[in-house]
Amino acid sequence: MSQSTSRSPIDVESLVENFNYRRVGKYALVVLFLGFFLVPLETGIMTALKTNSAIARSLPFAPPAGEGFTLSNLEYAFSQLTNSFVNSLLMAVPATLLNVLLASMAAYGLTMVSWRGQIAVFALFLVGVFVPYQAVLVPLSQFWNNMFPLAQMLEPLFAAIPFLQGGHSRLVPLTITHVAYGIPICTVLFRSYYKSLPNSLVEAAKIDGASITKIYRRIVLPLSLPMFGVVFIYQFTQIYNEFLFSFTLITGSNHPAAPVTLILPAIGSSTEGIDFGIRMSAAFLAALPTIILYVAFAEQFAKGLRTESG
Amino acid sequence: MATRDTTEPTNQSVVSTDEVVDWKTKLRYFLNSDFVRSSPYWGIPFILMGIAVYGGIGYNIAISFTDYSGLQPPSFSGLDLEMYRTALASEAFREAAINNFVLLVSFTSISLILGLFLAILLDHGIRYKNKVQTIYLLPMALSFVVTAQLWLWMFNPDSGVLTVIVTTFGFDPIDWLGNPRLALPAVIFALVWQFSGYAMVVYLAGLQSIPDDQFEAAKVDGASTIRTYLRIIVPQLKESSVSAAVVLMVFALKAFTFLYSLVGQYRPPNGTDILATLMVRQAFKFGKWAYGAAIATMLLLLALSVIAPYLAYQYRQGSL
Questions:
Q1: A46, A68, A90 — which closes off a domain?
Q2: Spatial CB neighbours of B257, under 8 Å, sequence gap ≥ 6
Q3: Residues A267 and A204 in one domain
Q4: In terms of CA atoms, which chain A residue is nearest residue B125?
Q5: Contact A221, A150 (CB under 8 A)
Q6: Where is each ABC transmembrane type-1 domain found (chain A) (predicted)?
Q7: Same domain, A185 and A41
């Protein structure tokens, strides 16, 4: 004891020195990786703000200077994307709401009410999270195009709605598809939350003779409001960003019902190649809603990701 | 005393009535059970999801046994494994399978290592830790379609950022995506950029569950920081590693969207064709539905071979 205290001043000094070097190195690494993760985004935004000649002359990540600055790329990209923004929201908002509601119900029935075999049923939900969607694409296009052509049936109805065209009816099967395939992941998210809730409230309500529906409406639903936020943000981002289902069910980027992700890979390309000023503007605009959501609710998003991995 | 008195008769009465209860009472009991009462809650989502996922998979497998192509409806007479034989014998399929395997293994392992490194970097005594973490994770919030555009520009051989870096060091510009040998590593690099933040978040959660006194104990013993992490901390992160790896592998199997959006067409850059792109191209471009379905089935088997052991592991751990 006494030995260590007598030696401690020297130790502390060398430690502090050591610590400083290490600290500097640590922060240098942190900043380096900040650059690594931000440079592609920063480059994209800078390129979006430059004229074509400035793009050719200046460094890609340098900010636009003087004559090289323009907003015309952004304006053009916005005009190209306006309709598809509406389409994306028309699809993603109802799909996410339905998804969150159904998933919370499923998680409730699978967690807070106990019955035999619920683990097996839950395992089926869990496998659904990991299934690569390619494995259902051919049946999906078969189903919505030949077996149950819902879009065709609804076409006259949509043609009658102001601001929409008949082609927008394709958003209905697309939304249903998103709801169906989004249920597994949302259920997993809700289930892990419900498992962490104290059981005593539900038990007490059961003893009082509350029905399963009453327990859900009066106790579980109010308690899970924060989780509704987490799952909504996570799933909205997923559906808004999704490409494969839109690609399968709404063929072609010039279809009136095409969502943002479907149009983006085609914007600004011509026979001479890709106009990166326009393409980067479009990419930035397309990403903007998710970036805003993410920056505003970063903690919820990270939470959703953490629970996804179990 | 009193309780014993009351329970015994009821037990008897249950036993005795059990022999005589008619099916109506049994049905009433069954209908009042928690299983039935809760079934509207889990049942409706289950049916919707079940039809979409398992119905879809079943129908896909059924189609893969036919020779359905073009516009004629599929005929289910004369089912055989011809499509699988054709696929296994084809050069394009083998190349896609190899690329898929390379992508799966290298993307997952690099993302895990980088994610672990970032998690350790941020774990102790970093200021603005949450803000830094938010930025590291930002690419995760972007669509594959968007990140593909960003990296298409980064890799641009005329004036992309990587070209600027390479030429500053005095090398010739490299056409990353145009060179069949470099295209796949370039794609993996971009995917690691997008997803290593995910591995970091999972590892950070794992690190936070390790009590601080283990670090202290190692420090008292005079172990260096690196040794502490390698010997003591990392082995405890096994569960985080497994679950992050599974999710990353599934991301890798879904890389179709990234590859498609790079070029905006069915054929991805030379040397980056994977099973997912091959499947979509065969089915939706050439109308070879049965062939595409067969490739999709094999892709599904690949995915199941990753998740089935994982789920079994989780089940044994009791964390399912």
A1: A68
A2: A243, A244, B143, B144, B145, B148
A3: yes
A4: A23
A5: no
A6: 85-297
A7: no
Name the residue facing B289 among A124, A129, A138 (closest C-beta).
A138
Give the bridge partners for B22, in sequence order: none
Alpha-carbon gap, residue A217 to B126, rounded angstroms: 43
Does A271 lie in the same domain as A141? Answer: yes
CA A3 to the chain's CA centroid: 58
> Are A146 and B73 within 8 A, CB to CB?
yes
* Range(s) of the domain holding residue A251: 72-308
Domains and CATH numbers, chain B: 91-317 (1.10.3720.10)
Residues of B in Cβ contact (< 8 Å) with A270: none
A198 touches chain B (CB under 8 A): no
| Cα gap A39→A29, rounded to integer Å | 15
Q: How far is B162 from chain A (nearest CA, A)?
A: 10
The residues, ordered by sequence, that sit 6+ positions from A180 with a Cβ below 8 Å of its Cβ are B48, B49, B51, B52, B53
Say yes or no: A216 and A295 in one domain: yes
The answer to whether the beta carbons of residues B271 and B184 sit under 8 Å apart is yes
B73 near A CB under 8 A: yes
Q: Which of A103, A131, A216 sits opposite B303 (nearest CB)?
A: A131
Number of structural domains (chain A) is 2
Is residue A222 within 8 angstroms of chain B, CB to CB? no
Q: Which two tokens stand for residue B192?
A: 């690691």
Q: Which residues are paired to A273 by β-bridges?
A: A270
Q: Does A297 touch chain B (CB under 8 A)?
A: no
Question: What are φ and ψ of residue B211, in 5° steps?
Answer: -60, 145
Indicate if A38 and A86 belong to the same structural domain: no
- Determine if the pTM surpasses 0.95: no
CB A183 within 8 A of CB A106: yes
Using DSSP's 3-state secondary structure scheme, residue A270 falls into: strand
CB contact at 8 A, B196 and B114: yes
Distance of CA A293 to the CA centre of its chain: 9
The whole-number pLDDT of residue A292 equals 93
The reply to whether residue A138 touches residue B60, judged by beta carbons under 8 angstroms, is: yes
Alpha-helical regions (H) of B2-90 = 2-20, 23-32, 34-37, 39-50, 56-64, 82-89
Sorted by sequence, the CB contacts under 8 Å of residue B45 that are 6+ apart come out as A102, A103, A105, A106, A183, A187
Number of H helices, E strands in chain B: 17, 0
- pLDDT digits over A150-174, tens only? 999 999 999 988 888 888 999 999 9
With contact defined as beta carbons under 8 Å apart, do B176 and B182 qualify? yes
Give B164-205 pLDDT, tens digit per residue: 999 999 898 899 999 999 999 999 999 999 999 999 999 998
Of A27, A43, A68, the domain-final residue: A68
What residues of chain B, 46 to 65, have a C-beta less than 8 Å from chain A?
A: 46, 48-57, 59-60, 63
| Residue B106 near residue B196 (C-beta atoms within 8 A) | no
Handedness of CA A111, B244, B125, A296 (dihedral sign): negative
Pair A80, A22 in one domain:
no
Do A97 and A218 have their domain in common?
yes
**Helix (H) / strand (E) containing A287:** helix A276-296
| B:132-191 residues touching chain A, CB 8 A cutoff | 132-154, 156, 158-161, 164
